[in-house]
Hints:
The chain is α/β, with parallel strands linked by helices. It has helices spanning 87-94, 124-130, 146-150, 154-157, 163-176, 180-183, 196-209, 226-239, 252-258, 282-287, 292-298, and strands spanning 49-58, 61-71, 76-80, 104-112, 115-116, 131-134, 214-218, 244-248, 261-266, 275-281.
Amino acid sequence: xxxxxxxxxxxxxxxxxxxxxxxxxxxxxxxxxxxxxxxxxxxxxxxxxxxxxxxxxxxxxxxxxxxxxxxxxxxxxxxxxxxxxxxxxxxxxxxxxxxxxxxxxxxxxxxxxxxxxxxxxxxxxxxxxxxxxxxxxxxxxxxxxxxxxxxxxxxxxxxxxxxxxxxxxxxxxxxxxxxxxxxxxxxxxxxxxxxxxxxxxxxxxxxxxxxxxxxxxxxxxxxxxxxxxxxxxxxxxxxxxxxxxxxxxxxxxxxxxxxxxxxxxxxxxxxxxxxxxxxxxxxxxxxxxxxxxxxxxxxxxxx
Length: 303
Ligand SMILES: Nc1ncnc2c1ncn2[C@@H]1O[C@H](COP(=O)(O)OP(=O)(O)O)[C@@H](O)[C@H]1O
Ligand SMILES: [Mg+2]
């Protein structure tokens, strides 16, 4: 079997990008809703990741246009909208996965801790280490053992960890992904033998092993049964205590359950690019959205 091409492991030295400083206004509006997360105050809220007028292109075709969105620290932001409006393209451009497609490019900017992710000096592999990603279909290395999936990143193979250190890393990472108890007795068996839900948690573990700041998830539960979905949702709840999470979901209940903020994308007129229509605390977007198209989408009347 072939190895996955989208493995979110990275081959980079540590400390490639560090930083601070947020220098543009944030788009997450304040609300009086007590159920909503606090409004984002740029002077006091850390925002590890943001986009500035980000457009995404395939060749000359603009598929996402002009998105400025901030992802506050230790929160979950759900990206929602009808199929084809560019959610996957947008989320893949956040960690430079988009450019893996020949001819793909962006305009505008993406900033991680204030540093330009698309700067000429930025190393895309280092960026993907800081901004991990999990895909719709679980993509573990199927013939590698469960433990070796965690240690698969060249970042680790190069580190020459001792056996004890490796074992500790595998255990802590699998615990962090809520998978340890289920797999601890078969760490040396191939990952391909796990159930779909377990494979997805293994992929999350693999992303966590390199200690990212941000985790991107593109419809991570769409291939899973309800029980596995619930487990991933519980895991997202735990992970946001230490990570910033961006999740694409077509499941409105899921967006409402897991996210603090929601961003609604759509294509207003056929042939136009997808745009960000409205964003804010999830309770506001679902309870009293401003835009009639957001209202129609979240209430299930289109899309
Ligand atoms: N590799 C690609 N090459 C060219 N066009 C693409 C590619 N992937 C997606 N697109 C186009 O970009 C648009 C947005 O797609 P996508 O980001 O997958 O939307 P969503 O995830 O919201 O369903 C669609 O029109 C799609 O056909
Ligand atoms: Mg998609």
